[in-house]
Design brief:
The chain has 10 helices and no strands. It is mainly α. Helix 3 packs antiparallel against helix 9.
Length: about 200
C-alpha cells in the first residue's frame, strides 16, 4: 500500500511539473491575453497592441483624424511655418511627421520665431534704455531682465490696443521678420493668420 501511495504521489508530482512547464511562456514570448477581446468586454476591439490588448490611444487618434488628409490638415501649414517645436529629434520627431503624412522638414528651413524667443535673443544695445528704477537694480542681469520684461509687455499691449510702428519699433521689427512664416500660414485661400489680426499696426 505504501509503495502504491508513493508511486501515486510521485506520478502526481511529475504530472504537476509537466503542466507547469507547459504553462510557462517561452523566454521573450508575449504574455497570454487574459480576457476575450470582443464587444462584450470592451467598446474598442481594434487596433491591437503587440500584447494582444486594444491600443486605446491609437484608436482615439484614428477617430480624431477622421477623413483629414495632409492636403486638408491646417496643422500641416502650421508646422511648415512654425516647425516642430517641443518635439524631440529622433524617433519622436520621425513619428510626428509620419502621423502628419509629410516628409520631415529640413533643419535649414526657416522657422517662425515666437515673440518671447525674439525678446530673449535681443542684445543689450537693442533693448530700450533703462528707466530710473531699473538703474537702481544692483546687478546688470537684473536690469537686462527688467528691460526685456518691458518689451514683453509691449507685445501684450499691441495685442489688445491700436498701435504704430513708431511707438513699438521692436514689435514692428519682429512682425516684419515673421512675414515668410505668416505667408505660409495664409497660403490657403480664405485663411488669414491670427497673428496679423493681433499685431498689425493701426496705421
Amino acid at each position: 500500500m505504501k509503495n502504491f501511495i508513493s508511486k501515486t504521489c510521485l506520478s502526481l508530482a511529475l504530472l504537476q511539473g509537466i503542466v507547469f512547464a507547459q504553462k510557462a511562456p517561452a523566454p521573450g514570448a508575449p504574455e497570454p491575453v487574459l480576457v476575450t477581446i470582443s464587444k462584450e468586454t470592451t467598446r474598442i476591439t481594434e487596433p491591437l497592441k503587440p500584447s494582444g490588448y486594444p491600443d486605446y490611444l491609437e484608436a482615439l487618434n484614428i477617430a480624431a483624424r477622421g477623413k483629414v488628409s495632409p492636403a486638408t490638415n491646417g496643422a500641416v501649414l502650421l508646422v511648415r511655418a512654425v516647425g516642430a517645436h517641443d518635439v524631440s529629434p529622433g524617433k519622436q520627431q520621425d513619428e510626428f511627421y509620419k502621423r502628419l503624412g509629410i516628409d520631415p522638414l529640413p533643419e535649414t528651413q526657416r522657422r517662425h520665431i515666437f515673440h518671447y524667443d525674439f525678446v530673449l535673443k535681443l542684445k543689450e544695445a537693442e533693448l530700450p534704455p533703462p528707466t530710473d528704477e531699473e538703474k537702481k537694480l544692483e546687478y546688470d542681469n537684473e536690469q537686462l531682465d527688467a528691460r526685456r520684461a518691458r518689451v514683453d509687455l509691449d507685445f501684450e499691449h499691441c495685442g489688445d490696443h491700436p498701435w504704430t510702428a513708431q511707438e513699438y519699433p521692436l514689435v514692428a521689427r519682429w512682425l516684419k521678420e515673421q512675414e515668410p512664416s505668416f505667408a505660409q500660414l495664409g497660403e490657403r485661400k480664405g485663411v488669414r493668420p491670427l497673428f496679423l489680426d493681433i499685431f498689425t499696426p493701426s496705421r
